[in-house]
Amino acid sequence: MPPPRTRGTALRHLLAELRGPAVPVPGEPPPQPKALDARALAALAANPGCDRRALLDGAGVDKAALADALGAPSSFGQSQFALTRGNAFEKRVKADGGAELLRLVHEKLDPAAPPPETSSVPDLTAVGPAGRTARTALALREAVEAGGWTLLDHPMLALDVAGSPAFLEPDAVVVHPDGSWTVVEIKSFPMLDGSADPAKVGAAARQSAVYVLALEEVAARLDPAPAVRHRILLVCPKDFSNLATASAVDVRKQRSVTRRQLARLTRIEEIAEALPEGTCFGLDLPPERLTAAVESVPATYAPECLSTCELAFHCRERARAAGAVTALGRAARAELGGLTTVDEVLAAAHGEAGDPADPAVAALRRAAGLRAEALASASAGQGGTAC
Amino acid sequence: MSLMSTLARLEAVRSGRAQVVATVRHRHVSARPLVFVPLTTAGEAGAPLGALVGTERDAPRLLVVPQPRDRDLRFAFLTELADVVLPYIDSFAADVEPAERTETDPETGKRVKVEVELCADAPQLLVPSRAGIEFVRLLGRSMRFRRTAEQDPETPHPAPPHVPLLGRWLTHFGERARVPGSSLLQALTELLSRHWATGQSNLEDQHLGALLAWIDPPEGTRGAEEALRAELARGADGQLLHPPAGPATDPAFDNRLLAPAIERYDRARTRLAAAEDGLEADDRLGELTAAERDVRALVESRTRPTWDAVWHGLDLLRALPEGAHVADRWTRDRWSFTGHRDRVLAGEPPQPRLDDAVTAANKLATREREQARLDAQEALDDPLVMAGRRLAGEAFAGEVVEVVRAYSESRRPSPRPLVTVRTDDRPHLGERAKVYRSLGGRPQSAEFVEAVEENTGAAHENGADGEDVHGGTGAGAGLLVTVRVLDKMGRGREPEEGSVPEKGDRICFTLFEHEQRGGAKLPDPEDTPWTHGGPPGEAAATTAQRPDAVTEEDVL
């Protein structure tokens, strides 16, 4: 649900102020706000409770650069071997006008349709992301009108995120003869004997769900609106070869989760309004001011952040310094009731503080007592016969 | 994570050092394990970059693939690996002891005892981390369907001899590693975190260097800070001071050091191929050797610290006394090893890509049974684990305060004494629930009769189940639990000496069984019912063994 235009403009201004003046690099055009790509959008669903992440992503702050400036650089990086292999595989899959790709779509998703003997691959080049988006929308409309199979190679889609457009580039979109659209995601992790790493498939599904949402916005503007299929095609190398194999992945669940997340993103306005006057995440600020600015937005750190968020090391440092129990994992937090810091929990466990009528405190005391008893009996040489 | 281990983690945060979560060692550690520290190429499936492997702490064998995308070099690597691993495995295969196994006689259908061989010891493969176990599986899968020139002279790109066999063994190790409590293939991070709790999350415990820093920090340092250093510290060249345990390498290493070195190797190889006369070729061979040496040095620099860390971790584990049931579980591993040895000797085909319904059901049943067995045995071996079960209401311990003689009401009365235990625990006892205690290593069962609050005198005929175990009133006050002992007291009218607890004894009853029964027998694969796809049949058997498709440029 996009907010009314005027509100959107105000928010855009606010977010631009938060972002601060971009650091100009000599000889290069002034940097744009860091675009939210599908990966970042999908990751929003990973930790929806984190205000810090919602705000920084919404404002388009370059979190990796911010983490560097804070002195807690992220450890994300891609090996060039993986990059080369990924690109080579994608090129191979799309060779010959995407004949292999269309064959897979036909086989896995739409076997009832006529086989893709001929297909068109429209040219989508245009100036700037907005231009490419318009070109893609046009190509999609033409493809529906023309009927038959059409492959859109790296189309550009726009999705309204908290009042500003995010540009997304799926690997491919296929238009079926019946006019419906399918998102194609090409990944270079192997599908071994018909199954792939579930964590990676999950990430691909979340990412594709974002593309499906963006395509639905394009479809809604056409009359009659073409169907966007909720089963996407995941293309991977087969076993240990570079032959392509594919599997249809149902992304309905991921789509609805992401849609809800995106709708909730409008709350970044509320988060931004709660910030102290003059808060800014400009990378040219002195580190103390930057740290203070980041600290003014509450974060919800959990160890899972380490694999999805560039700021995770900074947040972890803070969480550990504050003695937050969640630094040990969400499960740990769940068992400890209202006790949130290490000191609180240990004081309660050792009977120095806490209300014994509180079930969490009582359980902790029993646990501490049993642990001490077991350790004492083990060191007294009775170990090995607990019974 | 249980509250017990959460508490240990919090203690570790405060003290800056890992805390014990086990007082004995719960896994078998071989006297002569084979340590395997592999590295893989990013983005490629099953393309090893190199490895350190061996049984001697001071003399690991370095194996390197200077161009991981080259199939021939990869085969050379796998051959070398087979030359280390297979003789190691064979060294255990020959030493056997006689054993008995119950089998169904195919003719009479009766269960009969058969004399069989059981290997006296089994090999043990150790990798640094859980990802290493997955890599062993992947290597096994990539090799076991390969054909050698001898098996199939027509096959394109035949695999060197031994490579398919190594694939079958690694597959077996990888498959066995999924059975709870097994020790044929183990990851050091898993072994260490079973015995120590650190002040970081499970996720961060996957880093072997950080985990070791928590458990055994160098003299005069705090584990917490050392762990952080091991995890993140980079040198002036931007490289991690402690390389990750792999098999994945750090992208910064790939991009800045490895990629240029491999490129130099490729260039030197092209130049050698283009050499026009012998003299030139000699020079260029020298260049190629130097380039290869560079890649080898890089691989060694990333694997050696992990190699040393694995042995360091082993030292720590060996210092712990072995749990009483560990040998029993290791015997199961020996059976598993012997079984696979026999299958290989009998010339059976490699493990299929996908299991048939019966095999899959059997595997799942085995894993469930072994998990239950492991949980029970660990608790019996280790008071600290038992403490966790007591906290969870699955066991109770205390002092015997009263023993009343009683008899069963049958025509020939047998002893059924009533034993009352005073305990501070809050077991979840249902009406007539069975409880067990260990009597000289054998389980003795008893039946729950009643529980009475010591102070209030409130009785719970149905046990303490209804109330909150951690309830405020319960803590501190004792609970008098009465149980009726049911067995292991001999055949006479009077119970045998020592078979009934006496007043003043400290005993512990568990609500879980100590020994696991086997599940229902499943049909043979040939008799798979149609509900489960029917018998696999001939066609499935041939497709299951088909080698993987090989493309001209198998590698990108």
Count of distinct structural domains of chain B: 2
**Second CATH tier, the architecture of the largest domain in chain A:** Alpha-Beta Complex
CATH topology of the largest domain in chain A: Lambda Exonuclease, Chain A
Radius of gyration of chain A: 26 Å
Proportion of beta-strand residues of chain B: 15-25%
| Helix percentage range of chain A | 40-55%
How much helicity do the residues of chain B have? Answer: 25-40%
Mean pLDDT of chain A: 82
Tally the helices of chain B.
Answer: 13
For the report, how would you describe the main beta sheet of chain B? 7 strands, antiparallel
User: What would you call the shape of chain B?
Assistant: globular
Show the largest interface. A-B, 70 and 74 residues
General description of the model:
The complex is a heterodimer of chains A (387) and B (556). Chain A is of the alpha/beta class. Helix content of chain A is 48%, strand content 11%. A six-stranded mixed β-sheet of chain A has the order 1-2-5-6-7-8, with helices on both faces. Chain A has a two-stranded antiparallel sheet with strand order 3-4. In chain A, a hairpin with a 2-residue loop joins strand 3 and strand 4. The radius of gyration of chain A is 26 Å and the shape is globular. The N terminus and C terminus of chain A are likely disordered. The two termini of chain B are 43 Å apart. In chain B, helix 5 runs parallel beside helix 9, helix 6 packs antiparallel against helix 7 and helix 11 packs across helix 12. Chain B is built from 13 helices and 16 strands. About 2% of the residues of chain B have low confidence. Chain B is globular. With 556 residues, chain B is α+β, with helices and mostly antiparallel strands. Classes of the chains: A alpha/beta (387), B alpha+beta (556). Chains A and B meet through helix 5, helix 13, helix 14 and helix 15 of A and helix 1, helix 3, helix 8, helix 11 and helix 12 of B.
